[in-house]
Amino acid sequence: MVIDNKKYQTYLQILKEELVPAMGCTEPIALAYCASKARDVLNAVPTHCLVEVSGNIIKNVKSVIVPNTHSLKGIEAAVAAGIIAGKTDRILEVIADVKKEQISKIEEYLAKDCIEIKPLDSDHILDIKITLFNNNDKVVVRIVDQHTNIILIEKNDEKIFVKDENCKCQKENNNRDCLNVADIYEFANTVKIDDIKATIERQINYNSAIAKEGLENDYGANIGSVLLKTGDDIAIKAKAMAAAGSDARMSGCELPVVINSGSGNQGLTVSLPVIEYAKELKVSQTKLYRALVLANLIAIHQKSGMGRLSAYCGAVSAGCAAGCGIAYLYGGDYKCIAHTIVNSLAITSGIICDGAKSSCAAKIAASVDAGILGYRMYIEGQQFKDGDGIVKKGVENTIANVVRLGKEGMKETDKEIIKIMTNC
């Protein structure tokens, strides 16, 4: 791949846009960010707050602990944290610097019972609309499609900022359209390390730190620790580290992660197994960087057509991509990477997303296992073939089928999951 060509620069841009820090599960953090922005415009702590959200926001906020809130859960906690302690310019780390006295104020604000929640009838899977009231002032802020994509800011019925909600982040989607496995593989082989070093090093450092925290302390169902008690081979370690990071994150750990496709869990899943295998194989730091570039872009490629949220578990895409990164560390070529993707997607593409919670760690472990198995199958000369279920000849055709499954085929599944979770 020519270093100065348009695609090279686009791939760099995608990595920098996607691999950003976030503290806490990204859906409650998006709520906190939206609320913080609205409070800034209102320039006051509101006396009343109306929160209207799409079903997938309800699903992904219901059971996860909001960091820096003394283990509070739910939409109200996330919104209150943003209003009282949010630093809007920190974006997905909006409540990373909550002071002790602010935690008490968050609890006091929640006790006033002034946050009203309503489901939002929307064509957008990710949709947040927060309206704050104070005396005669009213402020509306709305986020659509991506966790920080503000499309409307309105004060006292005057529009301060408007973005076409139907553009669906057109620039980003157009960028993602150019992703394909062959070019991703070539890019990983030829990218200048200095161009991606800071981005990838931050992912290694942040995600390794929270995984270590997850193993050393009591978080969630402790899936990482449970796995390590079953053995100490590299495959188990790889699954355990990814699971442990999720264990900590879902339970409100106040350490940041570097996300992938808008998800901290996907960022952990795609990176930590590759990092563990790199240690085991004693590869160079450069080889690890290239493997992580490959894995991250393959995960983004799979998810970009599906959208940020759906009934399709994003860990599946990330676990598949981790398997590709591991294959790359072993010297796998394009053909090996392509077969690893097809094999692993054939195994786990039916896993549902029923919200952010402690069982995400177990789904991550299963998805990483499928990624590793997909690679081992190729090494042993085994593969799933065209016509085996959703598998289609050609890696891009199989990815397209999985995207169709997640985006279109699981729409009704998503609705039913939300009904189950909300007792409707």
Please give a structural write-up.
This protein has helices at 6-18, 26-42, 55-61, 75-85, 100-111, 170-177, 181-190, 193-216, 223-228, 234-250, 264-281, 285-304, 314-329, 334-348, 360-379, 395-409, 411-421; strands at residues 21-22, 48-53, 115-119, 127-134, 137-144, 150-155, 158-162, 257-258. The protein has 424 residues and is an alpha+beta fold. The chain folds into two domains: 23-168, 60s Ribosomal Protein L30, Chain: A; 179-421, 2-methylcitrate dehydratase PrpD, CATH 1.10.4100. Strands 3-2-4-5-6-7 form a six-stranded mixed beta sheet. The chain has a two-stranded antiparallel ribbon with strand order 1-8. The radius of gyration is 21 Å and the shape is globular.
Can you tell me the CATH architecture of the largest domain? Answer: Orthogonal Bundle
| SS field, number of helical segments | 17
| Low-pLDDT windows of residues | 168-172
Main β-sheet description? 6 strands, mixed
Number of strands: 8
What is the average per-residue confidence, as pLDDT, rounded to a whole number? 94
Instruction: Report the structural category.
Output: alpha+beta
| Beta-strand content estimate | 5-15%
Q: What is the helical fraction, as a range of percent?
A: 55-70%
Please tell me how large the radius of gyration is.
21 Å
Q: Can you describe this structure in just a few lines?
A:
This protein is α+β, with helices and mostly antiparallel strands and 424 residues long. Helix content is 57%, strand content 10%.
